[in-house]
Amino acid sequence: MSGKARHARMSRRAFAVTALSTLVAGGAVAGAALAGAEPSRPNGEGKGEGKRATRELRGMWLATVSNRDWPSKQGLSATQQRAELITHLDTAVSRRLNAVFLQVRPTADALWLSPYEPWSQVLTGTQGKDPGWDPLGTAVQEAHARGLELHAWFNPYRIANHTDPTKLIASHPARRHPDWVVPYGGKLYYNPGLPEVRRFVQDAMLDAVRKYDIDGVHWDDYFYPYPVAGQTFDDDAEYAEYGGAFPDRASWRRDNIDRLVQETAARIKAVRPGADFGISPFGVWRNAATDPLGSDTRAGVETYDDLYADTRKWVRQNWIDYICPQIYWNIGFAAADYAKLLPWWAGVAKGTGTKLYVGEALYKAGDPAQPAAWQDPAELSRHLTLAQGYPEAKGHVFFSAKEVGADRIGAMARVVADHYQQPAMPPR
Fold it and tell me: What is the pTM of this model?
């Protein structure tokens, strides 16, 4: 980002602090850019804080993989796709959120015109087919016009939710480099053990960072894939070639992911210094029974051991700007209690430069398959109340956009009523 661009962003924010302090009445959030002004970032005054703006992230994930949230189905016209996107952004404003995490690379594809990877089939139904508009560019522009941050959400290694390479477009990098690909658990993945793969996926993601005024680069919880019983992720050849300096395969795999994180962080800052880099991992690093530094949990998955993602290290080493663990369990859940994981993550973030946001399982609220706690519309609100006791917790992100809008049992409305009466701007 040029010095001029950085100055423009600061000017918009400075303008917004003054403007919304004047124009926001009764806790309402301005839903559109102020007339005659450049689009501003979200902001506002905090309750009982005089003229000082509250700094708190209030986000939602907008998932595109398998058309989970948007577009509602494949093959809609460009006009229909855009209208649905705008509706999601307007819903975020109505819920007094200030950030949207849009999934722009769900399966080694793109929701922008990329020289590296094909257009995503979630748009047109055909991988590689131009949808006739610029979804990511439009999302950035329209989000900023509404005072929302737009974080581009990428999945680094997942290629497809099937194992048939012939279903990919002929020009797909996975077709041109079959040696990069590992089938596992009914899906195709790029092999994290190959340096050329690590470079390629960075290049593919950084293309969007370079082209668009995004506020952040966001990854979810997929590194090495979640374990599938009876299956082996075949990286024997790569381990034999590159793993000699490590005591075991697990250490080598963790180093591969560490390198991806470090290298991507450095490249983001070189290309767009104002953009945050954050990761939203599965909520348990390690159980205390495995490691005394771990959380008081009995989770069946531990990111350190099963996904080869040393999420605690990334925070403690300050490699990333924020961590957003998916603490997708209710208060009192025996195997992974929200009330135990939140303070554990706060302790990990304490004293670091890494912000802690909390991933919230709004999708569980009112789901009859979930425990009784999730049938109570107040469960999520209690999460936010609990987090108020931990200064390291700088905000919450809700999964996901469809539920933010539908709000099956009013859990999101309860969060807004209890916690979001005053506007806020994301921490920076």
Answer: 0.89
